[in-house]
């Protein structure tokens, strides 16, 4: 599985809509192509989700 496919897998629901809406303006102004931009957005949301889960688990373990 290549990185672009992995990053785009994180695009679900409103995250996909956000990537779709911002693809044109971003790719017009940067050297990124559409697939790269979508992968970047998806990967960003994936990393943020993982950080949220880790933080939540940490809080639970500290209170346990």
Task: Count all strands and give the number.
Answer: 0
How many structural units, i.e. domains?
A: 1
Mean pLDDT: 93
- Taken in chain order, the helices and strands follow as HHH
Salient structural properties:
64 residues, elongated, 3 helices, mainly alpha
Overview of the structural elements:
- The chain has one domain.
- Helix content is 81%, strand content 0%.
- The longest helix is centred in the C-terminal third of the chain and has 30 residues.
- The model has no long low-confidence stretch (mean pLDDT 93).
- The protein is built from three helices and no strands.
- The termini are far apart.
- It is elongated.
- The protein is mainly α and 64 residues long.
- α2 packs across α3.
SSE inventory with pairings:
Layout: H1 3-8, H2 14-29, H3 34-63
Helix pairs in contact: 2-3
Concise overview:
By secondary structure, the protein is mostly helical.
């Amino acid at each position: 599985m290549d990185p672009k496919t992995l990053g785009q897998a994180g695009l679900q629901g409103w995250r996909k809509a956000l990537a779709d809406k911002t693809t044109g303006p971003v790719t017009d102004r940067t050297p990124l192509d559409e697939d790269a931009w979508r992968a970047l957005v998806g990967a960003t949301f994936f990393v943020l989700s993982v950080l949220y889960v880790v933080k939540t688990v940490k809080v639970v373990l500290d209170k346990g």
